Amino acid sequence: MAACVLRRGLLSTFSKINKKHSYRVLYVDFNSKHDLQRRRLLCSTCNVFDIQQKRFMSSRPEGKVLETVGVFEAPKQHGKYETGQLFLHSVFGYRGIVLFPWHARLYDRDVSPQAAESKSEPPGAHGAKEVKGKTHTYYQVLIDTRDCPHISQRSQTEAVTFLANHDDSRALYAIPGLDYVSHEDILPYNSTDQVPIQHELFERFLMFNSSKVPPFVPRDTLKAWQEKNHPWLELSDVHRETTENIRVTVIPFYMGMREAQTSHVYWWRYCIRLENLGSEVVQLRERHWRIFSLSGTLETVRGRGVVGREPVLSKEQPAFQYSSHVSLQAPSGHMWGTFSFQRANGEMFDVAIPSFSLDSHGHGDNPYAFLF
């Protein structure tokens, strides 16, 4: 847990240090006997210490000593991060490494329409208006397994799933510790450790090369795996909308098709991130989905919470991320709906889930090929 506390404190401090410095040392000096209520982050350029608030200490076991992780780098305002870039997730705080980038179309209802790609919504969808899209960079990343227990209540660490390659049309498998991360959520750093990330795929996919920047380069295994599994890993569209300071981001993925008796069943997974942009504490209570299939059916789904949870979103823990699945007997469709939240005073309010397409992208068969 000490590593988790270290990262949360660092993320809070990162934006407070003078931006003219090109790097910061990820180092915490903690005296468990005399300074139980404070934390210090040292910038190696200016020797400025920042005192952190007590809330970042709440989950730290007494007597634990926090260790050095690496050296912060300046976040990229333009361009993209390369394979092998180490980073801290700015929201969930885990350590990770970039495998490869994706170029997605971001359809953001919070941005006024400009000269960009347009996307129509299905009849009856929330808002029923044209949404403009722009190209945005996301990354396929590995999560350090040491951090998974500390983020499991806020973000699923087995969210990337695929269909099994056998007759059971409902069998789903997951790859632990694989995630999709937006460009703005990456806080880059470097490390002298030749194996800085603990994950069973790290050394299969990457190798250390001191002459390269970053010094972790892709093996042929990663390149082959990326090419082979591209259809069900592919991230193409991202949808975002904010209601009363609660931002909902949805990323749909086509998984493949299975034959079921006399029909075909098409599968998608969708990743949803809920984020509280305000200071008010709220709790998710219900979900209400409407699922339209090209076959002409419209299904309504209502239930308590999401994935068996009713997460609380606060200033200290503002985000929750999960994934789920949907199947249709048609190669395309749409989904939209609302989440019902409750305020501290008991008042309920609805938050819009932006409409998103379920599209097979022209792939007919199951794209499963998770082999090494």
From TrEMBL:
N-terminal signal peptide: none
Record-level GO cellular component terms: mitochondrial nucleoid; nucleus
GO terms of molecular function: DNA binding
Source organism superkingdom: Eukaryota
Protein name: Polymerase delta-interacting protein 2-like isoform X2
Sequence ranges assigned to domain ApaG in this UniProt record: 240-365
Species this protein is from: Clupea harengus
Pfam families per the UniProt record, alphabetical: DUF525, YccV-like
BP GO annotations: error-free translesion synthesis
SUPFAM superfamilies: ApaG-like, YccV-like
Gene this chain is encoded by: LOC105906690
